[in-house]
Design brief:
alpha+beta; Jelly Rolls; 4 helices
Length: 364
């Protein structure tokens, strides 16, 4: 009972079990403590004292039955009291067993396990577990940083892909523009032009039709003609194909003889006219329609028929294959226009190109 009194005088009604590791310098190395309420610890002692008190009372009653002073008690009352005390002792014994089992399983066993675990964990292993935990945290931080870098790289790749698509679109636009310029300039034919004026092609004016004469194409001052806007026949040998920069001859029938820069084996002839979209009149009735081509040699003026063709003005540049079955070289070519597309006054030629090879072509 003195022990119980001293415990009641204690201001902290707890029982502490403490295990401290050596060399603790951080919060993670702090000692771990298990707290057990005092009421759970003193419960078995209370039960033992109650059983002892009841046993003492039972023995006292038994002694009182043998004492002459209490001979007047009835046998029934004594037996009943004895039976009640026996039952009380039995119930208290069961209660004591249950309380002891509860205390052992809930209080004592976990405490012993904690103490055993702390004893088994040496300071080195404890520090090792802490270092592993720190390494795991550092690894998680590295993984997070790498994930952010990968996301940034992914966004950069998307931006670069968009830039590449823009560059491709610009390149395609440039290619389209180049193709348009080639079509405008006629370079997409990609064949040498032996009738080109800049390399030596000329017009045989003696065997060429007269240029169309019109008052609108002349300039006068006091009945004196100053100059003539009509273009000469050799304009058809130049690459400048713009509206009005053409050679016109009267009516729908005429011819032009071109002296080539070299004696060649003729293979193709190309006729070029302006597109309808840039025509000032909005139509192409002055364009040639039916025409024939002849190959000529200067020496004998012998003409060789190379083919009859139809020019479609919807296609501003058209190349026609010549029927040079004799495979003879020529230094002149004769273009004879038979009809045009409806203009009764004149016909316009913008450009004529002659293609071939300087050596005899091999038969296919």
């Amino acid at each position: 009972m003195s022990d119980e009194g001293s415990m009641n005088e204690n201001p902290e009604n707890f029982y502490l079990v403490t295990q401290t590791t050596e060399g603790s310098t951080s919060e993670e190395d702090a000692p771990q403590t298990t707290v057990i309420p005092l009421s759970y610890r003193s419960l078995p002692s209370w039960l033992i004292q109650i059983i002892c008190l009841i046993t003492t009372l039972r023995n006292t009653v038994c002694k009182a039955q043998l004492c002459p002073k209490y001979i007047g008690w009835t046998q029934t009352g004594a037996a009943t009291l004895k039976k009640l005390l026996h039952k009380a002792v039995k119930k208290l014994a069961i209660l004591f067993f249950c309380a002891y089992a509860f205390w052992s399983i809930v209080i004592c066993l976990p405490t012993k396990l904690d103490i055993w675990r702390m004893n088994m964990m040496t300071p080195g292993s404890y520090k090792g577990s802490i270092s592993l935990l720190n390494e795991l945290r550092n690894y998680q931080e590295k993984v997070r940083k790498h994930a952010e870098e990968i996301q940034a790289l992914h966004n950069l790749v998307k931006q670069l892909s968009a830039k590449v698509q823009e560059v491709k679109a610009m390149v395609n636009e440039e290619l389209v523009a180049q193709n348009i310029m080639k079509k405008i300039q006629g370079d997409y034919i990609e064949k040498p032009d032996f009738a080109l004026k800049s390399i030596g092609g000329t017009i045989d004016f003696e065997h060429t039709s007269a240029t169309y004469s019109c008052d609108k194409a002349r300039s006068y001052w006091s009945w004196f003609r100053l100059w003539n806007y009509a273009r000469p026949p050799d304009v058809i040998l130049e690459p400048n194909v713009t509206p009005g920069n053409c050679w016109a001859f009267s009516g729908d029938r005429g011819q032009v003889v071109i002296r080539l820069a070299r004696r060649i084996f003729l293979t193709n002839i190309t006729i070029q006219h302006i597109p309808k979209t840039i025509s000032l009149s909005g139509n192409l009735d002055t364009a040639p329609k039916d025409f024939v081509v002849y190959g000529i040699n200067d020496k004998g003026r012998e003409e060789t028929f190379l083919g009859a063709f139809l020019f479609q003005p919807e296609n501003s540049i058209q190349m026609f294959p010549l029927k040079n079955t004799l495979t003879k070289p020529f230094n002149c070519i004769k273009l004879k226009i038979l009809t045009n597309w409806g203009n009764p006054h004149f016909t316009c030629l913008y450009r004529v190109r002659a293609h071939g090879t300087m050596s005899q072509p091999t038969p296919e």
